[in-house]
Every structure is written in structure tokens, then in C-alpha cells.
Amino acid sequence: MAKKNDSGQKPVLVSGATGYLAGRLIPLLLESGRRVRAMGRFSEKMADRPWASHPNLETARADIRDFASLEKAMKGCGAVFHLVHSMSLTRNRLKKDRVAARHMARAAARVGAERIIYLGGLGDVSGKRAGAHLRSRHEAGDILRQGPVPATLLRAAMILGSGGAAFEIIQFLAERRKTIPVPGWADAPLQPISIANVLFYLKECLDHPETAGRAFDIGGPDRTTFRDLIGIFADAAGLPRPRMVRVPFLPPWLWALFIHLSTPVPAVMARPILEGLAVPAVCRERDIQKLIPQRLIGCREAMDRALDKIRKQEVETRWADAGRMNRPQWLDAPSSGRAEFQCGYRADLKGDPLSLWRAAAGLGGETGYYAGDVLWKIRGLMDLLAGGFGLGRGRRSPSALHAGDALDFWRVLESSPPSRIVLLAEMKVPGEAVLEIDIKPVRSRRLRLSLLARFAPRGAAGAAYWFALYPFHQYLFTNMIKGMARAAGLEMVSRPRKFAPKPGRTTPRRPGPKPHPSMRR
């Protein structure tokens, strides 16, 4: 933990701190004068968030499914926000969500927390059409309510806001498809709610103790359908409305695959959202408005607000922010015995280092990769067809880059302005791949820009993959360096040249014997 505050006020624990919802709730709580303890699995991601340096913020590294770390992180907290859930439909993941809820209820009781606030899903789960994800959200809420610590449950349908998975499904379908298949089972009424309204309810629950121990349905003022939401977005964006084709027999998995190929949202995340459209998701009561009144934002205004944030490049968080950030051990352990291939190019440039940093940090998304766009698009398509993200995931901001950000089919491992960027490939590859971008001053007004690809193959397929792509590295890297120099307005002092990689890491080698446990530290 870090940044302790001497105030007598107990801190509020926010789990999933770098996720889509928690990442927006934390600054609101801080602005209201509360002490906040942000909890997440990856310290590097939390440390690189805009709110990380706030004097009223503490950070705690913990996994909600690891009871010991959760209890330690929760000690001394008065209230707890449970904002973590899985979007996978595997039995193992859904079981972990139930375990996480039990851990949360038990840990809160052990440390003497006064209340838990949980955001669940809205929808009827009594029928056969209810999806596994919605049932899991309801089960988690029931577990919390049955626990010894009073729990407030807010049940929401689709949340509309820039950067949200549901919003981006609607956005990219409207922008990219003239004709959209819609299954007959997906016409159930729903009552979407703006992200601004959700955050207000969550924040205000802390100041309304009468909400403790109760469950509330939350929704916006409009009742609509998924197909109507696509039309509303098209109107807001000034686009022609896509043609909706009703398909009677379109199973959820196949529709999710269509979404995967048409939007940045992968099928594994799209399917739970789409299955939720099969059951009515409308508020059965509006008691929350009597206790916490606010102006509810309609669907069209929510779309307008989201589009305005996108245009102004002010999207605070995105659904992709919640991805894992596991730095491969072999990156920092040359003696690990893991086979590794490397290929690097560098050149000396003359000009402003900040301009070069802005060009490097603007890599990907709509900017592209400064060279070989066709090759990158082909690689992205191959990844998409293999079940990966492809290039469609884009990036949260066209200019800002933070550790943990998703960037096309990369994850940002390190962003250290104005000198270093490390990207971990999340594309489908037979191994682990990393791209390192380094900017170093070599003398007055002279800089050295280096691009280094590092790859740890998995078996013979990994080695074959590396050698198949190796001929393209010279073309891509030399022209990427030239493209970055042009974008930054810098003068090329020397042409890009291949440089020797780090010693001893150019060819695969057989791992040495593992040390005896007594020799390990």
C-alpha cells in the first residue's frame, strides 16, 4: 500500500481499480473529499492512472479471488465497492465469480467493514432464456446480501458510455455495417442507463445509509430495443440507419462471432452482452429515485455525450483496460534458459525529443504503424480470424499512452516518457512477442531511435513462425523509423541499421538443469 492519509475518515475500497467502471468512480470519490483505497492485481497499471498521485489515494495490490490478499487490502476500510466480474461464460470463470463474492462478504465481515456496494445485472433469470452471465451476476448479488455485512445491490441493464463494450458494439455496427442481422430472440425490451447516472448512484449510496441491505433496479428514462439503439446512434452520429434483417434462427455464439468480426469487442465478451438481450431488462421499481433523485439521461443524450468525449479525445476508461498485464519473466531474466529471438534496427535523428516521443506514443489505432500498413492489416485480419483482437480494438486515446492500455493487438507494458515504450503482443502467436521502442539522447539535439522485436517461441511452430516473418522485419522497422522521423519533423542523421541484440539471446538454446529447491531464493 502507498500514500497513507492521516484523516480520521475510513477509506473506501474500490476493487477492479483499473477497470472500466472503477476507473471512473475513483476520481469522483476523490473529488468529493473521500479517502479511497484502489485495489487491483497490477500495481504498474494503478501507478500510471491520472488519479494515482492524489493525496487521498492509497493503492493495494490484491486479487479478489485470493482471500488472504483481499483481507489485507480491505483492513481499515469502512465501505467496499465490488465492481469485479468475469465476462467469460466458462464454468470455471462463473464459479470464480461466486467464490469472489463469498470472499468479499467474508473479508468484509472479518475486517469490520460497514457495508458493501455491488453493481449487478438487470433482467429476469427465472426463464430458460436467461444467459449464464446474467444468472452469475444475480447469484453473486444473492451471496453478498446473505452475508453478515449489509450489501447494497444496484441492478443495471445496458450501460451507455464512451469506451463501454456495449456502446462500442452499437457504435461500430452502425459505422461499419449497412446491413445487420438481428436474431428474433433479441427483441426483448431493455432500459439502458447512462454511465453518468450509474456513477452518481454508486457515489451517493455512501451518503445514504438507508440504501444499505437493499436491492434497487436502476435504468434510464427510455424503454427501447437493441435494434432501436443502433438507429439512435446512427442519428446521433449523422449516419444513415443500417438495415436490420431479422434472422429467426441465429444462435448466440454465431451472432457473437459476427460481432467479433465487425467490432473491436471479442466474441467471448460480446456473447454475454448479446445473451442479455433475450430477456426483458426493465426496471420493476424506481425506489432508488426517491432516495437518490437525479435527472436521468435518455438514450439519445447518452449517445451524444459519448460521441462528444470521443471527438474531444477525453475517454477516461475503456472496456479493454481490464485486461491482464503479465510481464514475461524472460524479459528481465537472460539466464532463465528460455529460448529467445531478437531483431533490432536503429537510427540517429536530429531534432526535438518530445516531438519524437509524441510520434512513437501515437503508434497504432487510426495513426497506424508509419510503414507497411497493408502488411499490418493482413496480420490483423489473420489474428481476427484466429479468434484474436486484430487491429480493430484500436486504442483509448490517440495520443496518451499508459501502462496497461490496450493498443490494437498489443498491451502496453511500459510507457516512460520521453524515452521508452514496451508493447506485449496479445495476438495469436506460438510464443510470446514484445516490441521495445527506445529514444536516447546521444549528444546535443541528436537522438537515437531503436526498435527491437523480442520473441520467445513455443516449440517448433514458434521457431517456424519467427523465421517466416524475419524477412519482413527489415522493411517494416527501417520504414517505421523513417515514418516516425517524418511525423515528428526530425532530420535523419544516419540511415536505419540493424544492431546486435543483447548477448546470448539470438538463437534457441536448450534449457539448463533446474536448480535444487534449496538453491532457490
Automatic annotation (TrEMBL):
GO terms for molecular function: aldehyde dehydrogenase (NAD+) activity. PANTHER family: NAD(P)-BINDING DOMAIN-CONTAINING PROTEIN-RELATED, PROTEIN YEEZ. This is NAD(P)-binding domain-containing protein. Signal peptide: none annotated. It comes from the Bacteria. Residues 16-159 form the NAD(P)-binding domain. Pfam families: DUF2867, NAD_binding_10. Residues 507-521 have a biased composition (Basic residues). One of its GO terms (cellular component) is cytoplasm. Residues 496-521 are annotated as: Disordered.
